[in-house]
Design goal:
The chain is about 50% helix and about 25% strand. It has four helices and three strands, in the order αβααββα. Strands 1-3-2 form a three-stranded antiparallel sheet. It is globular.
Length: about 70
């Protein structure tokens, strides 16, 4: 059975919501993902592993580091 953390990491990106403000509309228009506000200003971008990889590349091109 796969480790749930591995599956979770491949299907979501967690980052501060303020980093998404300038790109959220483009993100939701271009990719099949959901953006949910978690607690304390944290947002979760949730999607398939393929979409999450593409979103990660998109965010990197926008200068948003995920590390």
């Amino acid at each position: 059975m796969p480790d749930p953390r591995t599956l979770r990491d491949s299907t979501q990106i967690v980052l501060p919501c303020d980093l998404l403000e300038s790109v959220r509309d483009d993100l939701e228009a271009e990719f099949v993902v959901s953006v949910h506000r978690a607690d304390r200003g944290t947002c979760r971008i949730i999607g398939s592993p393929v979409e999450i990889r593409a979103v990660s590349d998109f965010l990197a091109r926008q200068g948003i580091s995920l590390r």
